[in-house]
## 1
Amino acid sequence: MNDHQQLGHLEPATGATVESAAAALIAVWAHSRHSAAAAISSIQLQALLSIESHQHVNLARLGEALGAQPSSASRLCDRLEATGWVRRSAAHDDRREITIHLTASGKALLEELRGQRRDDLAQVIDEMPPTARAALLRGLRAFTLAADRVTEQRSHEADESWTTIAGRLLA
């Protein structure tokens, strides 16, 4: 074993293979979003996912989650509200604060997108031989656990999990 393997660094070929697989997964993910019935932009999807993950959110927190100014988040919410995907209402504990919630239509859209993504992933995975599928699942489970451990070690650096960050980047 060479020094790179002992230190946990990727061999160039391994890194290239992982990057290629990640790109293929992103392509499948993007196809799913574009083939869904409703036309939704990346930023709109990011907003809906952020609202969903928080159950309800105010404009400032949504702006932070999206890396946008509250005024930009407000305009985005105007568009999302016009589509019927979100609803704004006064907060229960402070009537001056406005919170944003997903509507039934917004929840249905996210479920439709997830369903389309699962169908697209199944189509790709069905093309794999059974032994390769089993190996992929074992590898992905191990990768997810390792990502969780690394994220936990870095938890002092960020307040978001890798799944939240990935969801935003892949929206």
Note: Residues 12-35 form the longest helix (24 residues).
## 2
Amino acid sequence: MDQAAIARLAAFLVEAKRRTYAGLDDDATVATPVIPGSKQLDYSNGELSYRDIYFGMAFFVGQEVVTDKQQAIWSMSYAGGVSPDITDRNTFLAVYGFLRKALLRVGEDRPFRGPSQFEQGSYRYVNASEGELPEFHGAERIYLDAMPVYALRYSGGIIR
């Protein structure tokens, strides 16, 4: 994949991520997902399509796939969730609300998850990744008053 195609993919990923979970929460969920019991979020623009399928809530696993003309060209797998110590529903929802705010700040330079750091109130989001769009891996964490409350690992790249 040449640099122009990589730039096009990065721009599309940012757009797709902002128009699905980060921007709409589960309101972006497809009514009848391909895999029963999953949450599925889809977005298309022209010949590019994005699909995010995941299972679970407190702890979840999922995969994002981008297709070009119905051919898979990029994918990312992820797994993580809130700390098992989080039992209060309001705290649980607040952690995921803060996560979506961080994920809205995804950039074309690293269109995997959110920015390297984001803070708001008592929450702090930290994302460390290695590699570039063709092949990468990373981890993100959320801290509430300096205590870890959420963690996720991810990896993926261009399919060749």
Note: The two ends are 9 Å apart (CA to CA).
